[in-house]
Design a protein that fits this description.
Blueprint (H helix, E strand, L loop, with lengths): L4 H21 L2 H24 L9 H15 L8 H23 L4 H20 L10 E2 L6 E3 L2 E4 L4 H24 L1 H11 L1 H6 L4 H27 L1 E2 L6 H14 L5 H18 L5 H15 L6 H6 L36 H5 L3
Antiparallel strand pairs: 1-4, 2-3
Helix pairs in contact: 2-6, 2-9, 2-10, 2-11, 3-4, 3-5, 3-9, 4-5, 4-9, 6-7, 6-9, 7-9, 10-11, 11-12
């Protein structure tokens, strides 16, 4: 079933309008919090490309996020900020190269072994920065000046201004969402989904499954690099903890909580989880325990994620029984093409994600 395109478009326009208007009505603290939420939503969006559409549960995306922040720190001078035009592409290229190496080795495994290998690579990068003098060791690296959007000495955007920084982050999230949407609706996205649903059939049809998955893994890491770059710029600090598995697990929870069947789901999950944390921190002393219980309850009550609430409030119209956001995949056998009663699929990674909360 599908919701009316006009209703979905109207909802997106309303949400985007609220996001644009937020800096004009909210205090400065909440503008900075919104910037953080937007960047984490971008990280969750990148992870969903490989988890939700590729069926690959990566546990090293935080390493890409943190590595990009370190690249900004390395390229920031002692008396001036780094140029965005140079530092951002450099960070993305370095992360893409690292992701290509990790992906080329990790994608030779499947299932739980893929999770373990990506987790191991993420921890290797964590200890590389934690146990050596690279990037200040366990103390991390301070970034005293934000990167500069300037051409010929003319500053185009002042990232020191919290409102400007928020709009830059929001623009990055919208751009990343449009990119992922275009990817999953392209023949590349259909092939990625086909490999996720039935690898043997995809191979028999001639799809280069390994290359498709590797490309999705690298593209996902590049989006995570953009989020990590601006996150380090926002807080002026980067530490090895940003590369650790705890952050990867938290982002995975955001993806599962929001829902993996759409581009908007991880964005909703990230904002919902960070908003929940913010409320619980100011109310309860042992807020992490309560957060875990709420997340577990939501995962069991809404197996399709928080976005499932929208489907419950505004039921979708049928369109041949297929969600247009879900790439069409040929049936595995004549019997598989027979009509079946609809069933609610529980996320295959829900239990894995919840275990890290």
């Amino acid at each position: 079933m599908t919701r009316s395109p006009s209703a979905a478009t109207s909802l997106l326009v309303v949400l985007l309008g609220l996001a644009v208007a937020l800096p004009f009505v909210a205090p400065g603290y909440y503008v900075q919090f919104a910037s953080k939420a937007v960047l984490m939503a971008m990280l969750a969006l990148s992870l969903n490309l490989v988890v939700g559409y590729g069926g690959m549960v990566s546990m090293c995306h935080a390493a890409f996020f943190g590595l990009s922040g370190y690249m900004l720190g390395f390229m920031t001078a002692d008396d001036a900020g780094a140029s965005v035009w140079l530092a951002l592409p450099a960070a993305i290229l370095v992360v893409a190269a690292v992701a290509a190496i990790i992906g080329a080795l990790s994608l030779r495994t499947r299932g739980i072994y893929f999770i373990m290998v990506t987790l191991a690579f993420g921890e290797m990068l964590f200890y590389l920065f934690h146990d050596t003098k690279i990037g200040g060791g366990s103390d991390g690296l301070y970034i005293y000046f934000k990167p500069e959007f300037a051409i010929g000495g003319l500053v185009l955007l002042d990232l020191e201004n919290a409102r400007t920084f928020y709009y830059v982050a929001l623009g990055g999230l919208v751009g990343a969402a449009l990119l992922v949407q275009a990817l999953v609706r392209s023949p590349f996205g259909h092939a990625l989904a086909a490999a996720r649903d039935n690898e043997r059939r995809a191979l028999s049809l001639g799809f280069p499954v390994f290359r498709i998955r590797l490309l999705a893994f690298v593209l996902s890491a590049m989006i995570a690099a953009v989020a990590g770059f601006f996150s380090a710029a926002q807080f002026g600090f980067v530490a090895p903890q940003l590369l650790g598995w705890h952050l990867s697990a938290s982002v995975l929870v955001m993806v599962v909580l929001g829902g993996m069947s759409s581009v908007l789901g991880p964005v909703i999950g990230a904002i919902a989880l960070l908003g929940l944390e913010e409320v619980l921190k100011s109310t309860f002393e042992h807020w992490k325990l309560i957060k875990g219980l709420i997340v577990i309850a939501l995962v069991f009550a809404l197996p399709g994620g928080v976005q499932q609430l929208a489907a419950m409030i505004a039921p979708r119209k049928t369109e041949g029984g297929r969600d247009p956001e879900t790439p069409e995949v040929l049936p595995a056998s004549p019997r598989a093409s027979e009509p079946r009663a609809p069933e609610v699929k529980r996320s295959p990674v829900a239990k894995e994600a919840v275990s890290h909360v």
